[in-house]
Amino acid sequence: MSQDASRSIPLLHPPRELELGAPQDTFWLDADVSIVLSARATDETVATARLLQTAIQVATGLLLPIRRTLRPLEESRSIVLLRADRDGPVPSTDLASVGPEGYALSIGQQRLLVLATAERGLFYGVQTLRQLLRTQGRLLPALSIRDWPVLPNRGVMLDVSRGKVPTLETLFRLVENLAAYKYNHVQLYIEHPFHFPSHPEIGAGSDPLTADDILALDAHCRAHHVELVPNLQSFGHLRRLLSLPRYAHLDEVGWQWSLTPAREETYQLLDELYADFLPNFTSSWLNVDCDETWDLGTGQSRALAERLGKGRLYLQHILRVRDLAAKYGRRIMVWADILLHFPDLVAELPDDIVLLDWWYEAQDHYPSAALLGSLGRTFWVCPGTSSWNTLFPRIENAIGNIRTFVRDGLAAGASGMLLTDWGDYGHYQLLSLSWYPYLFGAAVAWSGPDIELDHFDRAFALLFLDRPADDASVRAIHRLGRAVTLPSLGLPNRSNSALALFDEPLAGRLIERTDPHDLEELAEAARAALRAWVALPDAQLRHDYTFTARLVVFAAEKLLASQRVRRLLGSLPDPADENGRSRGLMQLDEAIATLEAQRTLLEPLAREFEQRWLAHARRSEIHQTLDRFTALGQRYQAAIAWLREQRQRYASGQPVDATLATYSPGPYHPLWEEGVQKLLELVRLAGPDSLPAQLRESLEREGLLGGAG
User: Fold this and answer.
1) Which long-range contacts (CB under 8 A, 24 or more apart) does 258-266 make?
2) Helix, strand or coil for residue 36?
3) Is the distance from CB of 84 to CB of 90 less than 8 angstroms?
4) How many CA atoms lie within 13 A of 575 on its CB side?
5) What's the burial of 69, exposed, middle or buried (CB within 10 Å: 0-12/13-18/19+)?
6) Which ranges constitute the DSSP H helices of 460-538?
7) Would you call the peptide bond into 89 cis, given omega within 30 degrees of 0 as the criterion?
8) How confident is the model at residue 624 (pLDDT cuts 50, 70, 90)?
């Protein structure tokens, strides 16, 4: 496709082949046009035609009739949907190489034709046509397209286990939008929020999904050519389950993380959970997860690990869950992170297991993809949206991660991409923020990694945001996405923008570590975004984006104020100097007033957070984040009270405590600082060697590991 064609036809998925016709050969959509199907068209074809009918009505106001006919190609002024394998004879078009999801689309003066060899191909051809309708309206340009995906499996996995369970309505909309942009695979990551009839206490208190919910969602997915694949954590990451007394005996080492493979009851439990869960899905797959089993072989299974080795012990568990899944007619997928440490054992995996290779940081190369390809494994690449552990997605990281990982996966023979969207520490980020990474992933997984970012941004603005191609709203996404990763804010797998929000007001670790210039740019980027996003036509996007921008401004200003207070405490004039003391008291009063104003803002911010959450999700475990707002408010009260005491000392001629020696922040560990404390618990239980080298090195750099034992 030429650059000129790309700019004149802003499709999210640049087609493999696109030729523009003569300008005078445009197709006018008027009331005399019909949507025409073959007499042999199935209900699936009719459903696809209904989607097109609705899109035309939205774009033009015209409700065009749908008709079956014996000779569809003889109809003038028509939009024709045909399957070449069923509705022949059809025009001579090379469809042999496009596969079941490929299609040909041609537009002339008298006829618009979508041609494919399968229902999925017709569906995706219509999605391209829907994009044309969004940008071209009732005057469609003459063109010819032949297109098909670079990857047969294009999926999104949404975490629903870190506190937030979307409403069924939200999940329906999610599937509709993902399908419109040519995703064909969805997973909901589940550790506990499902109502297991045999074990109801596991999901209790989390507003869990039910079998009825899954049946409805599965049917909705199938209607949109999306496979809903069951995903149930089957080894580690089971803190909720293992915290319940009924299952405590299955805890590997007392860390409430991994099921022990040393007890047969572990497999009895998994069998019962699979029996409750799997019959509600029509997919023949099950993602058993089994990632990050950091405590494996440290407790009940220590003797087994010493005899077999940790790698073979892990492999043994995978083979057991494979057999359990097979009882219910399922093949398994498993995250590849543990097995990549034992490549010699990968060859012992049965060929029917799919390995999911996850890495979430942008890199120049992903050696794991090449390794799995060289081992002849069926594998998918799994980049991330970079929207968790941050107040706003790390957009540039997501772009690099998705583009390069798919590139390396294609080169190594990957058969799919699963874009992961996690929700660490309460899933406080809003789902709307993931749509830019979702759609970039959709474009790359369909059209390939060489898609031009400028082309994508133009299409994203026009098709998703309903804004002009060069609109400030997209520039604001990029600027704020860069700001959250500025040198003193950006970290692997996270951004300190989130920690800045909940950091302790006087004793927080970020106060001395964060460059104030980075915070000033973060605040200004958020203010610019707020100005750009107030014009977004979609109300949900507008509310979610503008609230997020407001939250970022607060977080940046909060940390800047904390830095000013700390500097002030160390630079107050000598209290023995009456004139200096008067000036210092005014400065202390201003600092106290600033903290009081910020504390006052917390309550309305928490209320709006709650409103935005409930616009998309069940109440479920929202308390995780609301409790953080409450705890931060309490820290503000303590900080203000302490500052008032210091003011009294200073007013009486005594120096203030500039080193905060008398200030007690208490056991306050927000977000991943809480996670660090959990890791230190594992160190105490099992020793530092139980941690992966990367985590151990990180704790050592922070000076936290030496005192853990």
Assistant:
1) 258/293, 258/294, 258/295, 258/296, 259/234, 259/235, 260/299, 260/300, 260/301, 261/296, 261/301, 261/304, 261/313, 261/316, 261/317, 261/320, 262/300, 262/301, 262/303, 262/304, 263/300
2) strand
3) yes
4) 16
5) middle
6) 472-483, 496-502, 510-513, 516-533
7) yes
8) very high
Token duo for residue 616: 């998309």
Which pTM was predicted?
0.96
Tokens 């970039």: give the residue: 440
Residue 202: how many CB atoms within 10 A of its CB? 23
Distance of alpha carbon 705 from alpha carbon 693, whole angstroms: 12
SS3 label, residue 684: helix
**In 3-state terms, what secondary structure has residue 145?**
strand
Show Cβ contacts of residue 135 under 8 Å, excluding neighbours closer than 6 positions.
Answer: 9, 10, 462, 463
Q: Which residues pair with 416 in a beta bridge?
A: 153, 380
Domains belonging to the chain, first-starting first, are 3-147 (3.30.379.10), 153-451 (3.20.20.80), 477-668 (1.20.120.670), 671-709 (no CATH)
Q: In this structure, which amino acid lies at residue 20?
A: L
CA 634 to chain centre: 31
Nearest by Cα to 439 from 464, 475, 412? 464
The C-alpha torsion from 338 through 341 and 342 to 343, rounded to 10°, is 110
Reduce the secondary structure of 58-114 to three states and give it as a string: HHHCCCCCEEEECCHHHCCCEEEEEECCCCCCCCCCCCCCCCCCCEEEEECCCEEEE
DSSP structure class, residue 162: S
Helix, strand, coil shares of the chain as percentages rounded to 5?
A: 50, 15, 35
∠621-625-626 over CA atoms, to 5°? 95
Q: Indicate whether 611 pLDDT > 80.
A: yes
The three-state DSSP-derived secondary structure of 335-403 is: ECCCHHHCHHHHCCCCCCCEEEEECCCCCCCCHHHHHHHHCCCCEEEECECCCCCCCCCCHHHHHHHHH
Q: Which residue's entry shows tokens 């940081």?
A: 361
Q: What six digits make up the tokens of 253?
A: 């080492």
pLDDT tens sequence across 240-257: 999 999 999 999 999 999
Cβ-contact 446, 406 below 8 angstroms: no
Each residue of 307-358: pLDDT tens digit?
999 999 999 999 999 999 999 999 999 999 999 999 999 999 999 999 999 9
pLDDT in tens, 480-528: 999 999 999 999 999 999 999 999 999 999 999 999 999 999 999 999 9
Give 669's contacts (C-beta < 8 A, 6+ positions apart). 676, 677
In this prediction, residue 2 carries a pLDDT of 46
The values of phi and psi at residue 22, to 5°, are -70, 145
Q: Identify the three-state secondary structure at position 300.
A: coil
pLDDT band (50, 70, 90) for residue 5: low
Reduced to 3 states, what is the DSSP secondary structure of residue 18? strand
Contact (CB, 8 A) for 391 and 551: yes
